[in-house]
């Protein structure tokens, strides 16, 4: 058999063994590369310190830089948004999370939760008031759904909005809210006599406060908050005109979960790359540990799962761009990719040995962050049951 054409192939890229890069258009690669450059220049040198300190230095300045780049609400059309494809948005999420899950969370909550909620469910007035400044990073948004006692069953939320003349009065608590303490606007979901409704709440409204949640050992380079609403009076114009029931908030969660399908593979890539580099340089018994069979088995298995995860993300991205992506398919992607990314980080940690727990390397940071990503936007259990229902037609969680 002739092998003459094989000899002209370029050398293999150890981080792209099957040539997935060829599946992306020039425009998609340009978006990816611009986000990677911003992360490399503006975030990578500092993010380990932010994680250690439990805060992002100058989060508003960072938000404006991300807005200038066009990644905030980048997959939305109009109102100052970039109108990019779902695949381009996915590649941006992958690059952001290769830097840190907390940075991807900042972008994800801004664009796929807060901005998407207003873009999809809001009035023209709400869209024009908030979306251009949020796309520019001049206003930061948060999304209030989860409550202290209500996680996977949002229909049981206790936050309540009641009518008072033409106004609404909102009372309740939300928790684990990314961006809450620094947000200018909160999208808050509440029970009403007409079912669950969404409200656009400027955070300066009397009765609204957002104390930051401290003592986290995950997503430390991210602002996480409680939202407290005590008799918050809002005008009628603050309510979304429709989005009755859970359809509204769940549509937003599907958007955010889609970004996670890609993002988790960024954390995986960063950890795998660190493990490969370390194994090549670390010498034991007279040779680099990359030359030992057990290390090569770990590297090969991790790369296999990484490749499959990126291919799955790309397939779901193409479906989303074609308008054929279903929420249960997003659940399948989120379930697989976060679980496998976490396993890749843990295995990478073993290759780095004791150095694996040091913030000099990104691995333990990604590993800790993914413990949160595994749970938020739907737990492993809930996504498992969504997939189970898609297969059997029976809902096991009702």
TrEMBL record:
Record's keyword terms, sorted: FAD, Flavoprotein, Oxidoreductase, Transit peptide
Domain spans labelled Acyl-CoA oxidase/dehydrogenase middle: 142-232
InterPro entries: Acyl-CoA_Oxase/DH_mid-dom (IPR006091), Acyl-CoA_Oxase/DH_mid-dom_sf (IPR046373), AcylCo_DH-like_C (IPR036250), AcylCo_DH/oxidase_C (IPR009075), AcylCoA_DH/ox_N (IPR013786), AcylCoA_DH/ox_N_sf (IPR037069), AcylCoA_DH/oxidase_NM_dom_sf (IPR009100), Glutaryl-CoA_DH_mitochondrial (IPR052033)
Gene Ontology molecular-function annotations: fatty-acyl-CoA binding; flavin adenine dinucleotide binding; glutaryl-CoA dehydrogenase activity
Superkingdom assignment: Bacteria
Segments forming domain Acyl-CoA dehydrogenase/oxidase N-terminal: 25-138
Gene Ontology biological-process annotations: fatty acid beta-oxidation using acyl-CoA dehydrogenase; fatty-acyl-CoA biosynthetic process
Keyword field contains Iron-sulfur: no
Family indicated by similarity: Belongs to the acyl-CoA dehydrogenase family.
Domain Acyl-CoA dehydrogenase/oxidase C-terminal: 245-391
Signal peptide annotation: none
Cofactors required: FAD
Flavoprotein among keywords: yes
Protein name: Acyl-CoA dehydrogenase family protein
